Structure formats: C-alpha cells, structure tokens
Amino acid sequence: MQQIEEGTLILSQDNQQAELQAIVGAVRTLAANCQGNNIALLAVLRQLEELHREIRDGIFQASLPDNRQALYALLRDIESQGGWPYIERMRLQALFANWEAATQSNHIADETKTDVTKTLESHNGEVTIWD
C-alpha cells in the first residue's frame, strides 16, 4: 500500500522492506560474482560507502526532526534497532596481517609439497606408510 504525503510517494513498511531485501540480494549476488577479484570487490565497497555518505548527508539530514517529540522517537528507534549505521573500513595493518598470514600458510603448504615430492623422488616413487 502506498501513501501520498506532501506530494511525495511513500512506500508502506512492507513494500519498503521487500524493496530493501531485493537490493541486499542484488548486492550479495554482485559480491559473490566478484569473488576472487579483489579490485572489483573493492569497487563494490567504495560504491556502498559513497551511497551511505550520499544518503546520510543529503536525504537523511534533510528529513531530520524539527521538534522534540520527533527527535526523541528517532533517537529511541536508533537505540532499539541497533544503533547508528556505520561502515567500517579495514585498516591497512589488518590487510597486511591477513596477507602475511595467507602468504605464510601458502609458503608452508608449498614447502610440505616440496618435501613430499623430494621424499617420493628419493624412494624412486615408492611410498612407505608408517603407523
């Protein structure tokens, strides 16, 4: 059900939730399609951050309450629904730590594979299993 308020079309709560879930689904699908492509995923994150900023600084600020009761209702909603929306940025230190950990685990896996290959070669391809 749609309502008309001050010449603006407003979606009902149910329609708004359905539309929002469709957008969330589309973003998740896009991110899944970009899996493994860190440049594309970074572009998605940047676009989401820009959209957050655009809505916050534009439409949201313009719709802030102009009386105490409405401000109280907004603050109560923010508190009861999980706080202020925030998009956290990954710190470069965390990025490097994750990269270093992944590199080390790949290096250990490569060393293990090399050791197994050397062992197989030294035994002329014969494998002995010790229990």
Protein described:
- With 131 residues, the protein is mainly alpha-helical.
- The protein folds into two domains: 2-89, no CATH class; 90-131, no CATH class.
- It has helices at 13-33, 38-62, 68-80, 92-122; strands at 2-5, 8-11.
- It has a two-stranded antiparallel ribbon.
- It starts with a strand and ends in a 9-residue tail after the last helix.
What topology does this entry show?
Elements: E1 2-5, E2 8-11, H1 13-33, H2 38-62, H3 68-80, H4 92-122
Antiparallel strand pairs: 1-2
Which labels suit this protein?
69% helix; two-stranded antiparallel ribbon; disordered C terminus; elongated; 131 residues; 2 strands
A few lines on this structure:
With 131 residues, the chain is mainly alpha-helical.
Structural class: mainly alpha
Task: Summarize the biggest pleated sheet.
Answer: 2 strands, antiparallel
What characteristic shape results from the CA principal axes? Answer: elongated
Give the mean pLDDT: 78
